[in-house]
Amino acid sequence: MSDTIYIAYNFNVQPLQPAVEILIAELGYAGFESFVETNDGVTAYIQKENCNASILDDIQILSSDEFEISFTSEEIAQTNWNAEWEKSFSPIIVNNECTVRASFHNIPQTKYDIVIEPKMSFGTGHHETTHMMIEHILKNSFKDKTVLDMGCGTGILAILAEMRGAKQVDAIDIDNWCYLNSVENAKRNNCNRIDVFEGDALLLKDQKYDVILANINRNILLKDIPTYAQHLNKNGLLFLSGFYDDDLDLIIAKCEENSLEFDNKSLKNDWASVMFKIA
């Protein structure tokens, strides 16, 4: 993978939402692999061999009158990406209990020390949604629980769930890069109770979980909440993030339709994270 060349498309979007969410969904369908939301919009990555001059022709939102979207593109080698995140990636500490860092950072004094190499995967802990999901895991018991980390990204939440005592964790992501990165990061943190799978909620068959973690965008959550409810054990907990506070009513309504009871929410810079229980 070190010789893989990516094309980075840097999109400037006004207003940001819901345009960024729609844009990411359409780009994902077109073959883009990874996305990093920025203050001005989003940067999307696609392997050069999968890119062509007409790659954006079917991205309908680019021709919408509701939003102003412009973009530039550039080639980026995987080795250059690694150097870039190493240069800019600073460790984070959540509630003075959990540190998320790279291997070249100093070893912290916190109870939980997660070492990751994020590469092109989402979930370094810096984004508000990941930060809030880490807080949920720290505040709730995971001892001897079976856990699903849906849309696992770098695998941070799955790793912390095992560190907090989960007896078995399934981690799933539709993005091949995230799948590979989660496998690497689980090994990097000496986790032996995490199984990583590439795919989406359709992979869930007869499995049941005590806890489901899903940090994904609003539209996917709304589609998959019925599936999550079906795969929760009695007294199971569902933690959701990846959407704005303005979308909370939609999320709550969908959960209540599926016998899930709202428990509490967290907010960070307009992003929301919520906890539900089986009603």
Task: Please summarize what this structure is.
The protein is an alpha/beta fold and 279 residues long. The protein has seven helices and 14 strands.
How is the topology of this model organized?
Blueprint: E1 5-14, H1 19-30, E2 34-37, E3 41-47, E4 68-77, H2 78-88, E5 92-94, E6 98-101, E7 112-115, H3 128-139, E8 146-150, H4 156-163, E9 168-173, H5 176-188, E10 194-198, E11 209-215, H6 218-230, E12 232-244, H7 248-257, E13 260-268, E14 271-278
Helix pairs in contact: 3-4, 6-7
CATH class of the largest domain: Alpha Beta
CATH architecture annotation name of the largest domain? 3-Layer(aba) Sandwich
Distance between the termini: 46 Å
Summed up, the helix count is 7
Radius of gyration: 18 Å
- Number of spatially distinct domains: 2
Beta-strand content bin = 25-35%
Average pLDDT value? Answer: 90
Helix content: 25-40%
Order of helices and strands: EHEEEHEEEHEHEHEEHEHEE
Strand arrangement, largest sheet?
10-9-8-11-12-14-13
Uncertain regions spanning at least 5 consecutive residues? none
Shape: globular
Number of strands: 14
The helix-and-strand class reads alpha/beta
Fill in the CATH topology of the largest domain.
Rossmann fold
CATH-level-4 superfamily name of the largest domain:
Vaccinia Virus protein VP39
Largest sheet: 7 strands, mixed
